């Protein structure tokens, strides 16, 4: 009953964000404020708090590598679909790639799973962030001769500017070195950390856009089914074939049902997209991920 109440609570907060936007109380543009708060403050404090109880094992290289490989596989799926349907291949590759771990998955893990299990998610997202913050774009630009290539310097600059990624690395380093932050500091950070699920879900509700025609929905459903199918295939390999701890397997499955990265439509626009499709598929992926996440919670919690 507690799990159901929490899951419904998350859905309610997303609905609240959408309603506030629909009523004109907040604008879609205001989501940038929430995004800044979540990415730079509440998410970062959640990671530091998680490092206090994290147990490091040698298997942690697995989530990091998978964070990169899963993105590469989705890049291949997006490229194949775009080429088959006659779309711009760089945009097609970009719009299905990446995982929104920080503002979607981490709040769920924080609310429903032991805090110590966050480390697998953190390490997966460290690999994912490398692709989301420039890796996927670099690959997409390389398949389109008209696009400007991202230089190594720009790529590294993007990574260094990502506050969550820097905090990921700090948190991981603390856990690996068995360095514990002072209890008083953890207590203070927990105040901001506890606000992360609410702010993240409210922001997702504000970003959600459901004004679509049936024709658009049909196309978007097809794209999302490709992404979902690819992730289910990866999930099967992870769950049944990888010789890793079951808790880590579950956390990796949770990562795989994450929505498309919020950076994907931004980079798609930079690649020359003139369609609302990347933004719309991103919005609908939130709804699909919400259903899948709740299903996983009922299966494994």
UniProtKB/TrEMBL annotation:
Q: Transmembrane residues, as ranges?
A: 6-26, 33-54, 60-80, 92-113, 119-141, 162-181, 187-208, 220-242, 248-269, 281-300
Superkingdom, taxonomy of origin: Bacteria
Give a yes or no for keyword Metal-binding in this entry: no
Q: Which residues form the signal peptide?
A: none
Could you confirm whether the keyword Transmembrane appears in this record? yes
Q: Which UniProt keywords apply?
A: Membrane, Transmembrane, Transmembrane helix, Transport
This protein's name: Permease
The organism is: Streptococcus suis
